[in-house]
Amino acid sequence: MKFKTKFDTIVKVKKQKLDEVIRKIGKLDAQIHQIELMIDEIQKNIDNFRHPNNGEFAIFRQFRDLVEKYFRELSFNEEKLKALKNQKKIVIEELKEANMELEKMKFLQNEEIKKQILRLKKIENKQMDEMASMLFA
């Protein structure tokens, strides 16, 4: 038997909030993973560079400019990664809070259900006593 309580709607809303925060964490994890892959790719590109040993000065300059570009890109992505990880920490705190709020409401809902069950048992016992007294009277 499903008991209706005044907390049903609140529990539903708290559960939706928790689900929303979980989705946020999933999106952040995907973004973090994507940035980490980009950083790895940039690192590989930098590692694969071979400094020109001879040639015109323009070639050395192009090489230096390209390396600097990759280092700027690497630095930018590392900062972005740091920001995303900080944002994830904040959202994890939101998750803890949302989970705690949901658990509080579930507890209150269960307490309300226990009261309803107790009230129904009292009514049932009273009816049983009335039936017994009618049968044996």
Account of the protein in words:
The protein is mainly α and 137 residues long. 3% of the residues are buried. The mean pLDDT is 91. The protein is built from 2 helices and no strands. The longest helix has 80 residues, at 57-136. It has helices spanning 8-48, 57-136. α1 (8-48) packs antiparallel against α2 (57-136). Helices cover 88% and strands 0% of the residues. It is rod-shaped.
Can you give me a brief rundown of this structure?
The chain is mainly alpha-helical and 137 residues long. The protein is built from 2 helices and no strands.
Please name the defining characteristics of this protein.
single chain, 137 residues, mainly alpha, 88% helix, rod-shaped
Mean pLDDT: 91
Give the CA-based shape: rod-shaped
In angstroms, what separates the terminal alpha carbons? 34 Å
H/E element sequence? HH
Low-pLDDT runs: none
Helix proportion: over 70%
The largest β sheet comes out as: none
Beta-strand percentage range: under 5%
Based on secondary structure, the structural category is: mainly alpha
Give the SSE map:
Blueprint: H1 8-48, H2 57-136
Helix pairs in contact: 1-2
